[in-house]
Fold this protein.
Amino acid sequence: MLKLTDVCYRYKKGNRDVLKSVTCEFVGGKVQAIVGPSGSGKTTLLSILAGLDSPKSGVAVLGDTEFTSIDPDKYRRENVSIIFQSFQLFPLLTAIENVCYPMQLNGIDKKDAIEKASQLLISVGITDELHKRYPANLSGGEQQRVAIARALASGAKIILADEPTGNLDKENGEAVVQILRDLAHKQDYCVIIVTHNLEIAEGADVIFRMSDGVLSE
């Protein structure tokens, strides 16, 4: 689904490439992990995959279409969803309102959005009684499940998970990773996890290692 060929990136005032001729492919139906130390280029790579930044050279492709031919806002609305370590839920919206938000952005009727959001929340283990709670009244594991449901709400088949278990205990972390595995293996999502946790990486179908801007499988 996503392919990079000889992608390089350098910050505007930088004197070295942060990404160095990165060539890789990420496909649906698999969990793909990217590991590496801080400063190795993982975050920059994630930004390019999310359409938040553009390569300075090389080619990024979605399916058969180069990123340069894709509206980046439309790409982020319809093709890719990001799950953050810090959840990034809207604090003044309830769980179900958080999940409804991307659907309403895409023009889905409010009633239909609420019905779909409820189904998505239940599918990730958030029971009915939690749907009208605000994020502050949910545990960390519950907040991350809501974040996953919100990522699914857009209909995007590419999920970028940036340290999705970083703020969770082991039990909740394992549950979140299992949800992501099921999305890949049972629903053909393309799941890409950036993590420092080697246990999570070892459970992925494909492991990429980033070191000083160089990506290897």
